[in-house]
Here is the input.
Amino acid sequence: MDTSKGIKDARQLGLPKMFILGLQHMFAMFGATILVPILIDGYFEGHGMSIQVTLFCAGVGTLIFHLVTKGKVPAFLGSSFAFLGGFATVASLTAGKYADMAMSEKLQYACGGIVVAGLLHVVMAIIVKVVGAKRVMKFLPPIVTGPIIICIGLSLASSAIGNASANWLLAIIAFAVVLIFNIWGKGIFKIIPILMGVVIAYVCAVIFQACGMTNADGTALIDFAGVMSAPAVQMQPFFFCKFDITAILVMAPISIATMMEHVGGISAISATVDENLIEKPGLHRTLLGDGIASCLSGFIGGPATTTYGENTGVLELSKVHDPRVIRLAAVYAIALSFSPKIAEVINSMPVAILGGISFILYGMIAAVGVRNIVENKVDFKKSRNLIIAAVILVSGLGFSNGITFTVGSTSITLTSLAIASILGIVLNAILPGKDSPEETEQN
Here is the structure.
């Protein structure tokens, strides 16, 4: 099976293999997607967001995104981490109407802010449509997008190390299995190395636990308590959002950062599948799809959505670039949202396994950024290009907690990726010197 140029139509592999490939993408997004509602639940003292609702919104949001983008963009929309600071701020509000408000109601207002943030994406999509993606992307040539893509991958490196350090043996097993199947695997096994890494490492974890092994901190390798207590089937606990100007002013400005992240994510996917998705189906469509997905999610009690780097890494590793496979993963996510027990089985997977797999996935994203720079022949003999790349890389990796500032009574946090994007765009616009012919052609 020749996958060197990527498989655009996975139907040639047969339906059984397509279903398995979809499962691989589902495993890739699962850990990070459910972590967001877990963290939000902590902010709201146990009256927070549901994992079931989050999975449902991720699946439905992804399908909406694919519908809006004409099924041409192989992106999975998972939970956005960018809004965590906003949720924490709303949870801590104690002035005015929020003084004696229950945490559950505060969450409703925070979700209303998510809806407005999604609408801002829709407004930006309209602007891009009117102005034209080419004009917009003149501000985002490869010297800007390449380092941003690198930052997307490397900024996640500490997460991979942190997870792997829980149990280095399991992490190494997962890493080795992915490596072996990707390099020496044959047939279907060559394009599902992530899934094989998860399954084999999980089986090893079960055996090791039976033999008395624990994690580095003494905890059990696998905790089945959640699996035993979770119901087999249960409807999602949806709730409707509420709107208030205070919560909106907290949440909505964060969309500036997520728009920058969106462009970086779509650029990464474009470089991975070797197609200019920003031009066709168009940046206006991807922004619109992301915005509508976030609006729906916030309206029914879910988090904002964003394109997931983990799934971009799977695209690069498997060389299967068919959006149909991503849509299968979305269907799996929706199905899981109806079964807390199955979701808990997957959630019981040791974080060390995720860490071992992330070593490759996150590194793959960074490598795509490097390839984007090389293939577009960015001239690093020019001082302007060196400065732009240097500032983006230092900002994207150095501001690990972002920058938080206050406008009036509203606290706004710019993520490291948003800071890097803004500085890169500004420097590219003001520094003297023109891009190389190759870069200009790309824009």
Remarks:
- The first helix runs from residue 15 to 43.
